[in-house]
Design goal:
This protein is α/β, with parallel strands linked by helices. It has 12 helices and 9 strands.
Length: 306
């Protein structure tokens, strides 16, 4: 079992704020990228703060399969773990069949293209995309558009499948304009749970694009990994997250870990550190719980409203 990395025992007040947290961005393994803990270990880790649930994300495969294969080990694990599929080239890109498989197996999320998005490829052109030890994964670009520049039939069907299942759709690492088109199609087809990842990292979404996606009902996510100083990059000041919360409002903001990678703090340890910093910077406990408990529970389908 993994070893916790916090140096200071959390206060009862902090644990009260964190109780019922839902992490929608847990990078436990298996994965082609090196992970610090697997899904079962992540479940036991979550119990340290009374975590209600976690959604495990892989850029490369359907994580519902992992969880079903780990069923005997997860049977008595304390934190329910959920999975889904990211629409990168490893699963055929904007592939309705991959989405249908994930949904039929119990998937709770479809992530838009991440490592296969043009925006991600351009942002990481100077390196290998993300650090991993598997060699060339032969990833190719995935778009929501067809050759004519219109939203593709496959993209439209993906959003209809998500709508029928009532599950979460995220914009992945698409650029702002592509994500707006993706969410417009999704909203028109009845998707009610949508999430924008880290708009100021990789995606670089404009204020206009963010406002449009908010008007469609999307939530905006920020990651603890970007504000925990123990993570190498990006190393952003907590004031930047405070500004985002005040700009968007806690009602439409989500805070998740985006952690589990080798060399980074454990997800729970980041919650303990960064949430305490938010409290210290004047963000009310009720607002924090809105962002880490209620909004996230709604997006994962654990609650009907946020």
């Amino acid at each position: 079992m993994v070893t916790a990395g916090t140096a200071v025992e959390p206060s009862p007040a902090l644990l009260k704020v964190l109780d019922g947290t839902v992490d929608l961005h847990c990078h436990s393994g298996p994965s082609p990228f090196p992970r610090r803990l697997d899904h079962v270990e992540a479940s036991y880790e979550g119990a340290r703060i009374g975590m209600r649930a976690a959604l495990v994300k892989s850029h490369h495969h359907n994580t519902v399969m992992d969880l079903l294969a780990m069923g005997p080990r997860l049977a008595d694990a304390p934190t329910p773990m959920y999975g889904g599929v990211a629409l990168n080239s490893e699963v055929g890109g904007m592939n309705p069949s991959a989405v249908a498989v994930a949904i039929n197996m119990g998937g709770k999320c479809v992530w838009g293209p991440t490592v296969s998005a043009a925006q991600h490829i351009e942002a990481h052109r100077h390196d290998d995309g993300f650090p991993h030890n598997t060699g060339n994964l032969h990833e190719t670009e995935v778009s929501v558009f067809d050759a004519s520049g219109e939203v593709s039939e496959q993209t439209d069907l993906v959003t209809r499948l998500v709508a029928d299942a009532g599950i979460l759709l995220t914009g992945g690492h698409l650029d702002g304009d592509s994500m707006v088109a993706f969410f417009e199609t999704a909203s028109r087809n009845g998707v009610t749970r949508m999430l924008v990842h880290h708009p100021d990292y990789i995606i670089k979404a404009s204020d206009q694009a963010i406002e449009k996606m908010l008007s469609l009902g999307a939530f905006v996510e920020h990651e603890l990994s970007m504000y925990d100083p123990r993570v190498k990059a990006p190393d952003w000041p907590i004031e930047q997250l405070v500004d985002w919360i005040r700009k968007i409002g806690p009602e439409r903001t989500v805070i998740d870990s985006d952690l589990g990678q080798v060399g980074n703090p454990l997800p729970v340890d980041a919650y303990l550190l960064v949430v305490q910093q938010l409290l210290d910077h004047g963000i009310p406990a009720a607002d924090i719980r809105q962002m880490i408990c209620r909004n996230t529970a709604f997006l994962l389908g654990l609650e009907e409203t946020s």
